[in-house]
Amino acid sequence: MRTHTKIAILTGLALATAACDRGKPGPGGLERGETLLQVSATGQNETKPDEARFGAAVVTFAATAESASQLNATKMTTVIAAIRALGIDEKDIQTSNVSVSKVEWGPNRGKYQASNSVTVRVRDVTKAGPAIAAATGAGANNISGPDLRVSDPEKASRSAYASAFKAARARADTYAEAAGLKVLRVLRIRDGGIPEAPVTVGMYDRPAVAAIEQAAPPPVMAGTSESTAQVSVDFALGPK
């Protein structure tokens, strides 16, 4: 997968001169005459999402709870079949909510409302739009998403880790040069972790769904998903 990398640096700098007795290593592994430099850096990596997830729900009303449930089940079965017809595997369609309740207000007051929601995982972003259109065309009247993701975030973020460390080392070299010193070795590396940053595009409510049913599949643009890695590195500095 092709990636583009850019670097942003957040630096927290602390300098401390080791005072060691009899040549023994001081705090953090410093030796006599060495200086501790602590640098924090952030590396970023942009990767094109390769999968999408969206929610599809069917909401129905009827005079009795049983009738509302039966009508809902029939429509949701049709919706799932339409999604499956696009080649989406059964394991990628998961029920997320089923409910039946009596309506106490509004135009459907006194009736029963049945709702069934599924979450759909589309492993090809180009099929996300057609899948949404298929769901609404088959009877889904509440759509949310799509949520665009990278299926293997760890793989996608490896260059972000490398960029973060390279940024920390470059900043360490700059400070060492300015102080008339040089970087001797790395004492400690602390991983700051990678926050996941999925891209969420839009949400469709019932009025909007009516328009989708009569139109072409909604365009879904993959864009890029950004991974950010943070690292803190302790360096030992010494005379040139």
Provide keyphrases for this structure.
single chain; 240 residues; alpha+beta; Alpha-Beta Plaits; 2 domains; six-stranded antiparallel sheet; five-stranded antiparallel sheet; 4 helices; 11 strands; 40% strand
Shape: elongated
The count of β-strands is 11
Overall residue-averaged pLDDT value: 81
What class, by secondary structure content? Answer: alpha+beta
Q: What's the number of domains?
A: 2
Major sheet characteristics: 6 strands, antiparallel
Oligomer: single chain
Strand content of the residues, in percent?
Answer: 35-45%
Task: Give the end-to-end Cα distance, rounded to a whole number of Å.
Answer: 42 Å
Share of helix, binned: 25-40%
Radius of gyration: 28 Å
| Elements, N to C (H/E) | EEEEHEEHEHEEEHE
Uncertain segments are: 1-22, 196-215
What is the number of helices?
Answer: 4
Describe this structure in words.
This protein is of the alpha+beta class and 240 residues long. The protein has two domains: 99 residues, no CATH class; 99 residues, Alpha-Beta Plaits (2-Layer Sandwich). The protein is 27% helix and 40% strand. It contains four helices and eleven strands. Strands 4, 5, 6, 7, 9 and 10 form a six-stranded antiparallel β-sheet that branches. Helix 2 packs across helix 4. It is elongated. The N terminus is likely disordered.
Question: Helices, strands, pairings?
Answer:
Blueprint lengths: L3 E5 L5 E4 L17 E13 L3 E12 L2 H20 L8 E10 L9 E11 L5 H10 L4 E8 L3 H26 L2 E13 L5 E2 L2 E2 L1 H8 L11 E15 L1
Antiparallel strand pairs: 1-3, 2-3, 3-11, 4-6, 4-7, 5-6, 7-9, 7-10, 8-11
Helix pairs in contact: 1-2, 2-4
